[in-house]
């Protein structure tokens, strides 16, 4: 195991009526001006907006709304939120949504306290923001686990870059699985696959010897796979939904990462694909993973072989490490197909005219990946996904 320090700043309120039970007490800790942030309006249709506004009003808060946060949030939207926060002397941000709203607000919270442009501050001056407007998250779409970390993924359209920006940690996160029951099934599955991807990307990091974090990770992966299947059998299965919501948080709350340097090469590539195509994150990962993993052989064979046995239940007897590693990638690819995720870019509506070379050349090369990819090889991976 690598040396580590572990502490976690995000308080998670999980379960039925978590907002009704806990939000008022949390809100009492902050000033009266609240920025209520949400996406394109699903919260108004499913009643979550009315419920939260009721709690905010009862708590005597003055609400400023920050709305229309899109999937794959843009840097321009971040600046709009920061401006609103400054103009209205916001004391607290309540982010209500999935990874997009939650990420956008992390950077709003930092930009509102910073005079410089935060993109330049982080990428040119290599600064790390240290002052934030405090925030709480109410998760309505699970999968990214974005409520548990302080990294935001923001699309800078001008720079053609979908990149991480460091923002604030949430003080607390409300995780009520019932709030996610109105998610479209396509998003449920792509979100859950994103959680599986986060677990795999963490597992595939270094050191390569299996440690306790990896064994917990294997259990998390098995759990996600089982509960995706249960959800597809019965979309109203609340037990399966609860498990998936917490598995998403587990994959990003630092526990699986203890003693590890993570990989996340597939994510880096998918993010740049997103910068060029605005594709759905979980779907992009589903297409990329098997193709990228085939390129990670033979370097990744020992870890893939272990995943074959421990996660996918493949019988090891009579099989070499290489055969098991192949069997893992085959099992992953057929699972992606089984659960109705796309297996090619064409199925996602990504055309052959997409500039794969530019995507590959602008992709961050992950330090923790077992294989040191070159932009040329990443371009091959992208072309194989058509
Ligand atoms: O905008 P509204 O109308 O709310 O609709 C949303 C959106 O269209 C809808 N939705 C959310 N809750 C709903 C609901 N529809 C019905 N009922 C509900 N209860 O779901 C759609 C997708 O939401 P979005 O937040 O975009 O999805 P997701 O949670 O997958 O977030 C994706 C973003 O997170 C980033 C991705 O790159 C992408 O930008 N990620 C953030 C990570 C992090 N910070 O740790 C990790 C991930 O790897 C990922 O990169
Ligand atoms: Zn992800």
Protein topology:
Layout: E1 11-14, H1 18-27, E2 33-37, H2 42-45, H3 48-58, E3 62-66, H4 75-87, E4 92-97, H5 99-111, H6 118-123, E5 135-139, E6 151-156, E7 161-166, E8 172-175, H7 185-203, H8 212-233, H9 238-252, H10 265-277, H11 281-295, H12 301-310, H13 321-338, H14 356-361, H15 375-384
Parallel strand pairs: 1-8, 2-3, 2-4, 4-5, 5-8
Antiparallel strand pairs: 6-7
Helix pairs in contact: 1-3, 4-5, 7-8, 7-9, 7-11, 8-9, 10-11, 11-13, 11-15, 12-13
What does this structure look like?
It is a single chain. The protein has 386 residues and is an alpha/beta fold. The chain has helices at 18-27, 42-45, 48-58, 75-87, 99-111, 118-123, 185-203, 212-233, 238-252, 265-277, 281-295, 301-310, 321-338, 356-361, 375-384, and strands at 11-14, 33-37, 62-66, 92-97, 135-139, 151-156, 161-166, 172-175. It folds into two domains: 11-180, Rossmann fold; 189-384, Dehydroquinate synthase-like - alpha domain (Dehydroquinate synthase-like, alpha domain, Up-down Bundle), CATH 1.20.1090. The strands form two sheets. Strands 1-8-5-4-2-3 form a six-stranded parallel beta sheet, sandwiched between helices. The model has no long low-confidence stretch (mean pLDDT 97). The structure holds 5,6-dihydroxy-NADP (NZQ) and zinc ion (ZN). Residues 144, 194, 197-198, 267, 281 line the site of zinc ion.
């Amino acid at each position: 195991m690598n040396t580590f320090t572990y502490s976690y700043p995000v308080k998670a309120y999980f379960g039925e009526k978590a907002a009704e039970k806990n939000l008022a007490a949390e809100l009492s800790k902050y000033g009266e001006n609240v920025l209520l942030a949400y996406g394109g309006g699903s919260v108004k249709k499913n009643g979550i907006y009315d419920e939260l506004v009721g709690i905010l009003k009862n708590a005597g808060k003055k609400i400023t709304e920050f709305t229309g946060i899109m999937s794959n949030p843009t840097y321009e939207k971040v600046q709009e939120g920061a401006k609103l926060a400054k103009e209205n002397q916001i004391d607290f941000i309540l982010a209500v949504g999935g990874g997009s709203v939650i990420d956008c607000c992390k950077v709003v919270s930092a930009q509102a306290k910073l005079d410089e442009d935060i993109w330049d501050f982080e990428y040119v001056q290599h600064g790390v923001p240290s002052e934030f407007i405090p925030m709480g998250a109410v998760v309505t779409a699970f999968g990214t686990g974005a409520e548990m970390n302080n990294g935001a993924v923001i699309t800078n359209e001008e720079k053609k870059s979908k990149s991480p920006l460091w923002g604030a940690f949430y003080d607390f996160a409300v995780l009520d699985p019932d709030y996610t029951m109105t998610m479209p099934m396509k998003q449920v599955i792509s979100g859950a696959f994103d959680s599986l991807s986060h677990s795999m990307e963490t597992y595939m990091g270094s050191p390569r010897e299996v440690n306790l974090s990896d064994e917990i990770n294997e259990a998390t992966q098995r759990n996600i796979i089982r509960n995706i299947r249960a959800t597809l059998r019965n979309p109203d299965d609340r037990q399966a939904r609860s498990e998936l919501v917490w598995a998403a948080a587990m994959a990003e709350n630092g526990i699986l990462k203890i003693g590890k340097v993570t990989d996340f090469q597939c994510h880096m590539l998918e993010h740049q694909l997103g910068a060029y195509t605005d594709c759905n994150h979980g779907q992009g990962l589903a297409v990329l993973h098997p193709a990228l993993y085939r390129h990670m052989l033979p370097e990744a064979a020992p870890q893939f072989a272990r995943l074959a046995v421990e996660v996918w239940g493949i019988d090891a007897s009579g099989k070499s490490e290489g055969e098991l590693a192949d069997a893992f990638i085959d099992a992953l690819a057929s699972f992606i197909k089984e659960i109705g995720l796309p297996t090619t870019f064409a199925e996602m509506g990504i055309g052959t005219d997409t500039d794969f070379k530019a995507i590959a050349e602008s992709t961050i090369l992950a330090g923790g990946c077992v294989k040191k990819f070159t932009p040329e090889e990443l371009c091959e991976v992208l072309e194989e996904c058509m």
